[in-house]
Design a protein that fits this description.
The strands form 5 sheets. A 7-stranded mixed beta sheet has the order 4-10-9-8-7-5-6, sandwiched between helices. Strands 13-14-17-16 form a 4-stranded antiparallel beta sheet, with helices on one face. The chain has helices at residues 4-8, 36-49, 59-78, 93-108, 127-136, 153-159, 182-191, 211-214, 239-244, 285-301, 303-322, 351-359, 373-378, 395-407, and strands at residues 17-18, 21-22, 24-25, 87-90, 114-118, 139-143, 164-170, 195-199, 218-222, 233-237, 255-261, 266-271, 327-329, 341-346, 363-364, 366-368, 384-388. Strand 1 (17-18) and strand 2 (21-22) form a beta hairpin. It has 409 residues and is α/β, with parallel strands linked by helices. Helix 3 crosses helix 10. The chain folds into 2 domains: 4-34 and 302-407, Aspartate Aminotransferase, domain 1 (Alpha-Beta Complex), CATH 3.90.1150.10; 39-299, Aspartate Aminotransferase, domain 2 (3-Layer(aba) Sandwich), CATH 3.40.640. It binds pyridoxal-5'-phosphate (PLP). Pyridoxal-5'-phosphate binds at residues 29-30, 92-94, 122, 124, 170, 174, 199, 201-202, 222, 371.
Length: 409
């Protein structure tokens, strides 16, 4: 079992007071706080091992290269991929999806093809496809969402066809916390010959995720939403697909050789091995070290425990929030189909007013569209307030939150 009180001791920021009140951090879907282990690992890297990777034979470069490779290995194991060749470090989920769009989509999608996404996607799983469709002329189709925010599987099955070349969906919605049945979607998509890209920004931090079991082709996630630093995340890709793909960023580190032909007066380029052929330029080495520490931390806690703790918090929050007459909660109420994200509104108040009121008591929540405007339009919401939980949150914090929501009325 997970002990949130013990865990809290390891997060220095949770000792802070905001507006003279103890900090209650319920904006975990946006980014999570960092434990001492992550902060220390990064400090240790800069104090003792800092050097560029893959370039020099000196001791520091050997050490930083080893750490950076180990970080890939840790992430690979965490999602049960085939090894570090399948793990590309990127800035985060947004860059991972853009990498697939431009490194795979630019060459493989053409007029007459379709990309199937869903109406619950974060903008980062919509905009790259809409942008690319303007260059390549394919169509972006949207599977519908039910009124409770769950995916409409019938709409998905009606929308998919032999024209669909890739299905791009979020594993867990960042607005409602709804968990979609990715395994089922992947099976159907593969029957139609389409690839499957999963936006796992809200699932890898909160649930056990096994890419082999899900049988998906790409998985994108961000380190900062899982206790790691900002500016680092990962794209998993099936090895055979990554091998066929051309790189996204050209530059140093991603090539094996660049040779100049004196007759044609052109350079020819041979590419580096996986995953380096996708990591052009000096990478975020310290970010990788921080992400490795975050993954180790979560492994020690146990992802099943993380999931159960969040389900307990969510169930309790749902119960307590129902006592607040003017509060409307959106999304499903069954915690077996969702993660710890609760979108809501308070009658007569804008979501920003609710967030400001709670902030004056030290409670941090999100307000607005949460980068998912199409979903808000579908649910007929101008905006929503969003509380999202993580391993360090407690039932007492939810009590305080619910009492204040009552007071606001
Ligand atoms: C579901 C989902 N996808 C993508 C993103 C984008 O992540 P990042 O900003 O780390 O690239 C987020 C961030 O909120 C998200 O929740």
């Amino acid at each position: 079992m997970l002990d949130p009180y013990k865990i809290r001791e390891e997060f220095p920021i949770l000792k802070r007071k905001i507006n003279d009140h103890p900090l209650i951090y319920f904006d975990n879907a946006a980014t999570t706080q960092k434990p001492e282990q992550v902060i220390e690992a990064m400090k240790e890297f800069y104090e003792n091992h800092n050097a560029n990777v893959h370039r020099a034979i000196h001791t520091l470069s050997q050490e930083s290269s080893e750490l950076y490779e180990n970080a890939h290995e840790e992430v690979a194991k965490f999602i049960n991929s085939g090894g570090m060749e399948e793990i590309i470090f990127v800035r985060g989920t947004t860059e991972a999806i853009n990498l697939v769009a431009y490194a795979w989509g630019l060459r493989n999608l053409k007029r007459g093809d379709e990309v199937l996404v869903t109406l619950m996607e974060h903008h980062s799983n919509i905009v790259p496809w809409e942008n690319l469709s303007k260059i390549n002329g394919f169509q972006v189709k949207y599977a519908d969402v039910n009124n409770d925010g769950t995916l409409n599987y019938e709409s998905f099955e009606n929308a998919i066809s032999r024209k669909t070349k890739i299905v791009c969906l979020s594993h867990v919605s960042n607005v409602t916390g709804v968990i979609s049945n990715v395994k089922k979607i992947a099976k159907i998509a593969h029957e139609y010959g389409a690839l499957v890209l999963v936006d796992a920004a809200q699932s890898v931090p909160h649930l056990p995720v096994d890419v082999k079991d899900l049988d998906i082709d790409f998985l994108a996630f961000s380190g900062h939403k899982m206790l790691g630093p900002t500016g680092i995340g990962a794209l998993y890709g099936k090895r055979e697909i990554l091998e066929e793909m051309e790189p996204f960023h050209g530059g140093g580190s991603m090539i094996r050789e660049v040779t100049f032909n004196t007759i044609t007066r052109r350079c020819s380029v041979s590419l580096n091995d996986l995953p380096w052929k996708f990591e052009g330029g000096t990478p975020n080495i310290c970010g990788g070290v921080g992400l490795m520490a975050a993954v180790k931390y979560l492994k020690d806690v146990g992802m099943e425990n993380v999931k159960r703790h969040e389900a307990d918090l969510t169930e309790y929050a749902l119960r307590r929030m129902k006592e607040c007459a003017k509060v409307t909660i959106y999304g499903p109420k069954d915690v077996s189909v969702k993660c710890g994200i609760l979108p809501f509104n308070v009658e007569g108040l804008s979501s920003h007013d609710v967030a400001l009121f709670l902030d004056s008591y030290g409670i941090m929540i999100r307000s607005g569209f949460h980068c998912a405007q199409p979903l808000h339009e579908k649910l007929k919401l101008k905006s929503s307030a969003r509380a999202s939980f993580y391993i360090y949150n407690t039932l007492e914090e939810i009590d305080r939150f619910a009492e204040l929501l009552k007071e606001i009325e």
